[in-house]
Amino acid sequence: MRGAPDPAEPSNPGETRVPASGPPGTADLGAVRRTDAVIDSLAARRAAGSAARPHPGTETGRPRQAEESDPAVRLLRALLDDVDDPGCGPEAAPPPP
To answer: Model pTM?
Structure first.
């Protein structure tokens, strides 16, 4: 009695086995690591900046944008301010003509 076929051998005589290229839909780990590195770098800059000087008094507790020296932090703060602003939503827009 013959056992199960060896997966390393071709299933039919004369047929060659093609190696698999990998599972479909795999993520590019290099891109994920680069993204993580960018986020970690921004977090380190923010931590270093907040430890270096006290926060000036604002209604949100965030330093004013003019006092930030890092352009990436200024842009992220501007984006957060736009998202957090309740007067910028679709209900605040004028009706279309």
So the answer is: 0.28
Q: What are the structure tokens assigned to 50, written together?
A: 């907040």
With bands split at pLDDT 50, 70 and 90, how would you rate the model's confidence at 79?
Answer: confident
What's the rounded mean pLDDT across residues 47-56?
A: 61
Q: Are 68 and 56 in contact (CB under 8 A)?
A: no
For the chain, domain boundaries? 32-85
CA nearest to 72, candidates 35, 46, 34:
46
| DSSP assignment letter at 54 | P
63 DSSP 8-state letter: P
DSSP structure string for 7-27: TTS-SSTTPPPPPP---TT--
